[in-house]
Amino acid sequence: MTFKSIRGTKDILPSETPRWQYVESVVRTVFHRFNYKEIRTPVFEQTSLFARSIGELTDIVGKEMYTFTDRSDDSLTLKPEGTASVIRAFIQNNLGESQPLVKVYYLSPMFRQERPQAGRLRQFHQFGAEAIGSSFAETDAEVIAMAIEIYRQFSIVNCELKINSVGCEKCRPLYKKTLQTELRKIALQLSPDSQRRIEENPMRVLDSKNENDIRLTASMPLITDHLCEECSSHFEKVKSLLTSFHISYIVDGRLVRGLDYYTKTAFELTSNELGSQDALAGGGRYDLLTQELGGKPTPGIGFAAGIERLMMIIEKKKLLNDLDIHPTIFLAAADTTSRAWTLEKTIALRTQGIAAEADFLNRSLKAQMREADRQNAAFVLVVGAEELNKQTAVLKNLRVKEEREIPLAALAKILTE
Predict the structure, then answer these.
(1) Which residue segments constitute the domains of the chain, with CATH numbers given?
(2) Nearest to 338 by CA among 386, 380, 373, 372
(3) pTM, rounded to two decimals
């Protein structure tokens, strides 16, 4: 039997991992610059955590989660998103007791049983951030600016920022009733998913990607026209701050995001370089979520972004082509006598902080030289019995095609310099 990876999953091969490592390092650098600290949560949680936070009527909970029963008959679920786990950790570990504003970020695999397509896998990777403890619009603007800055670091500057306010528990119920009244008039013409959502979560109908639904709901009332004074004032402040940060945006009244826990600000970053799957990152405010999950009333805002989609743009634009890992020096053994020395010296150089490689397959000198070229080593040192007797050898610089004789005892010092 030949085993293959599960549909919707992908091996990240050694030729690809340098790009992933570089991307992750840049993302971490930006988060640290904004004073966000990393949090790592388990890859699976109680199923009820996601059902309660994301919403039992959402597609994620209803159709896409990887849920299983463990040997204790507990229902567990692989993380489909990161915010719920972070808030659970925030509550469980009393993170808000030691500081008024908790700013954390994560890089983690997530799992959803969706239809696999470009940039959308069943095991995918996200980076994201959460700012927990501030209800002020300044935090919303900071989170948005931070998300944009990450993409700017990769020279991805033609992103489009869409923002909206989805209201709060005061103004949203009345708007939902107004929207339901209008949607019921065209219910039979809508897609089955949208027909179901009219009664369950009417705002999600506006988020439908079905072209006929979009056309039929083009003139529907938008929540931006039904915000309470608090939500309206908050949204105006967010827009004013973005303008002061020189960040362009589009107000999209149909942007509601796919998770039930959002309140007030919702936003999305898109790029025309991704085709139909154009979303790069998205997030919003969730002032009720911490209390909903059993904690004290605590406002919060965050965002998440797909690493695979970022990698698609990077590969398309050929931004990170020469990130492979190369040895600084390849030590080639000219004969049996010198083979043991090259292996011992290779290990010694590595302990001194130098990336070194040697032949571990007992190949000929000619084959070793080909291997040094294949691995794109910067230097090669050929050592045989004669070189060991003289304690000198020729160090070849493969980058500039130069060579010079050096004392073997000085090899580490020369390479370090």
Answers:
(1) 17-171+227-316 (3.30.930.10), 329-416 (3.40.50.800)
(2) 386
(3) 0.89
